[in-house]
Amino acid sequence: MKFDFFTLGGRFRWEDIYNYQDWRIQRHIKARKYRLLDPYDIRRDSGSFSKCQNALLKYIHACEIDRPYDDTVIILHDFARTRNSVQYLADSLKESNKNIIAVNYASLHKNIAAHVQLLTQFLQNIEIKNNLYFINVGAACLITRKLLNSNNNYHLYNVAGVVDINPINSGSDLAELLDTRRFCRRLFGPMLTEIKTRQALSIPKLPQGVPHGIIFCPSTIHKLTKKLLARFESFPFLTPPSEQSYADKIKYITDSTFFPLENRDLFLNCLQYLTTGDFIDDNDDAPTE
Fold it and tell me: Which of 140, 192, 235, 262 has CB 3.0 to 4.6 Å from 188, enough for a Cys bridge?
C-alpha cells in the first residue's frame, strides 16, 4: 500500500464521518471531499466516501486490523476544542474492552443541529453490536441531548449510559459574556449563541430510561475565573436549574488540575461507570467550598 503524507488530523475544518479502530474517514466542512486517515493521522487515500471505504477495506485485510468490540463508547469533545483534547482519556479507557471512539466535529463552524446530523450519519456508518455509551465534555452534553431526542435516535440504539464531564446542561455563563461581542460571535461561530442559558434549556433533557451520570472535575483555571463570571450566574426572567438536577449519579472530584481530562480519578470513575453503571463509592461525594 502506498505511503501518503502526515496531516494535522483535521483539527477544526474536518469532521469525522466514519471510524474503524482509529482509522477515520473525514469530510471537509466546506469542500465536501473525503479522506482516509490511519491512527497516526497519515492520509492513506482521498476522494469520494465510497473510495475511502474501499481503501480502508484493503488496509483491514492487508494489516489484519482487529474487529471492533461489541460495546461502543462515543467521546465528544468540548466546544472550541478538538478530539485531541480527549485523546488521553480515550486511550486510557481502551482497557475497558470496549470500542472507544473520540469523534471530531467542527464546533466553531456549525450549529448543534448540524452536529446532530453528523453524529446520526456517523452512527449509521459504524457497526454497533451491543451497547452504546456517550461520554460528553462540556458543551457536548447539549449535542447528545438533542441527538437522543431527535428522529427517534434513542430507540435506534441500545444506549446503556451517558456520562457528562463538567457539563453546561443549563447553559454557559462565559457564552453569555462572549456573545455580547460581535467579534466573538464571528470567531466562535453559531454554536456560541446556542450554548447560552435560554437556548440550552430549550433542548429537552435526556429521554427517561437513559442512565445518566455527571462528573464535576473543574480545572484550576475554571476555579480562578468563576468569580469573574459571577454576575452572569442569574438572569432577571429565568433561574436556570442546577446541573445536579440532570442526573441521579453525581461525582465530585475536588483534586483540580490544569488538565482535568488527564486526571486519573476522572479516568477511573469513567471506567467504573462503563463497567457497573455507577461511580466509585468513596468519601469524596460532596463539593468543597
Answer: 192
Phi, psi (deg, nearest 5) at residue 119: -65, -35
Instruction: Please state, in angstroms and rounded to a whole number, the distance separating the CA atoms of residues 162 and 133.
Output: 6
Residue type, 50: S
8 A C-beta contact, residue 157 and residue 124 = no
Closest CA to 126 of 38, 275, 24, 14: 24
223: helix, coil or strand? helix
Tally helices (H) and strands (E) across the chain: 11, 11
Give the strand order in the sheet containing 34-37. 5-6, 42-47, 34-37, 23-28, 14-20
Contact assessment for residue 126 and residue 20, using Cβ atoms and an 8 Å cutoff = yes
Cα dihedral value 153, 154, 156, 161, nearest 10? 130
- Answer for the pair 253, 215: CB distance below 8 angstroms, yes or no: yes
Contact 56, 23 (CB under 8 A): yes
Beta bridge partners of 72: 99, 132
CB contact at 8 A, 166 and 243: no
pLDDT in tens, 2-29: 556 788 888 889 999 999 999 999 999 9
Distance separating alpha carbons of residues 6 and 51, to the nearest angstrom: 19
Report residue 206 CA to chain centroid gap. 15
pLDDT tens, 112-145?
999 999 999 999 999 888 999 999 999 999 999 9
CB atoms within 10 A of CB 23: 19
pTM of the model: 0.90
Residue 235 DSSP symbol: B
Report how far residue 77's alpha carbon sits from residue 260's, in angstroms, rounded to the nearest whole number.
13
Alpha-carbon distance of 36 to 26, in angstroms, equals: 7
